[in-house]
Write a structure and sequence with these properties.
The protein contains 9 helices and 13 strands. Helices cover about 30% and strands about 15% of the residues. The chain has an 11-stranded mixed β-sheet, sandwiched between helices. Strands 12-13 form a two-stranded parallel ribbon. Strand 12, helix 8 and strand 13 form a beta-alpha-beta unit. By secondary structure, it is α/β, with parallel strands linked by helices. The protein is globular and about 50 Å long. The protein has 3 domains: about 170 residues, DHBP synthase (Alpha-Beta Complex); about 45 residues, no CATH class; about 60 residues, no CATH class.
Length: about 300
């Protein structure tokens, strides 16, 4: 039976035992809650796909505790190392070629030579990783196509009857509220494959290079080198309309960071009411790109 646990050393160690036993743990990050499994255990990773009803061709992000662990598992270039030094830990995922002796489950990678790595900026997540002493595979803790969870209660509503998920570590509401930005180095260029908690402008200002937009609205497995590239994603179970006026606003102050943090929480609230959802226009710059990306994926073509 799934239970929500408060954050303390005892419960974190209890979550470590669950991971070592090959079962799943829901844990907080600064972006959204993750559904975690031992990234080196094929059976445990398979439980993620089963629990989420996730397509087998959709890769899964590997969470690690440090740059040193990234170096042990993946092949760093000078540019990818610069990105990690600048933005990790934080809401950024980087796609790297993995080492042949990484020991990572082949199920994570959809048959590709690359793996998505992230160092979360959350004390609970880092404590869990350091105590487990191995990488943790963790997509967002929601069923595929449904809203990403920003609270432990969101996770519980979707997985309370799943015997493979005995523990949800409750760290309150997540800080960022959107999934991580996903980047990929190709021919000495950096592509954004998914907009998220770190904006394109922030990447460009820090790295002093032009960031390229990667594939959008991907349908086929051959194009999926990153999580979050499917057309239909993050969707509520009621109709959603974008660019509405005179409706509840994600941020009355017009603060895009606040709007990002509120997005999935607001969608969850209105989904429970069983009513149609309408969202006011969001400026398409900075983190606003990530918000609009999630809204467009969540809205049906008939409601735009």
């Amino acid at each position: 039976m799934t239970t929500i646990k408060k954050i303390n050393d005892k419960n974190i160690l209890g979550a470590v035992k669950v991971l070592k036993a090959g079962d799943l743990v829901c844990f907080p990050t600064e972006t959204v809650y993750g559904l975690g499994a031992d990234a080196t255990n094929n059976l445990a990773v398979a439980k993620i796909f089963n629990a989420k009803n996730r397509p087998s061709f959709n890769p899964i992000i590997v969470h690690v505790s440090s740059k040193k662990m990234v170096e042990r598992l993946g092949i760093l270039t000078s540019l990818s190392e610069k990105i990690i030094d600048a933005f990790c830990p934080g809401p950024l995922t980087i796609i790297l070629e993995r080492k042949k002796d990484s020991g990572l489950s082949d199920l994570l990678n959809a048959g590709l030579k690359t793996t998505a790595f992230r160092i979360p900026d959350n004390t609970v997540a880092i404590k869990l990783l350091k105590n487990f002493k191995k990488p943790i595979a963790a997509p967002s803790a929601n069923k595929s196509g449904y809203l990403s969870p920003t609270k432990a209660e969101h996770v519980y509503e979707q997985f309370k009857n799943n015997e493979d998920i005995p523990i949800i570590l409750d760290d309150g509401r997540t800080k960022v509220g959107l999934e991580s930005t996903v980047v990929y180095e190709e021919n000495n260029n950096i592509k954004i494959l998914r907009h998220g908690g770190i904006s394109k402008e922030l990447l460009e200002d820090s790295l002093k290079i032009k960031i390229i937009e990667g594939n959008k609205n991907t349908k086929f497995s051959k194009d999926l080198i990153s999580p979050g590239m499917l057309n239909k994603h993050y969707a509520p179970k009621v109709p959603l309309r974008i660019n509405a006026i005179h409706k509840p606003n994600l941020s009355k102050k017009g603060n895009l960071v606040e709007a990002a943090a509120n997005l999935f929480s607001f969608l969850s609230i209105y989904e429970k009411k069983g009513k149609k959802i309408a969202i006011a226009p969001i400026p398409n710059n900075g983190i606003g790109r990530a918000i609009n990306d999630r809204i467009v994926r969540a809205s049906s073509s008939s409601s735009r």
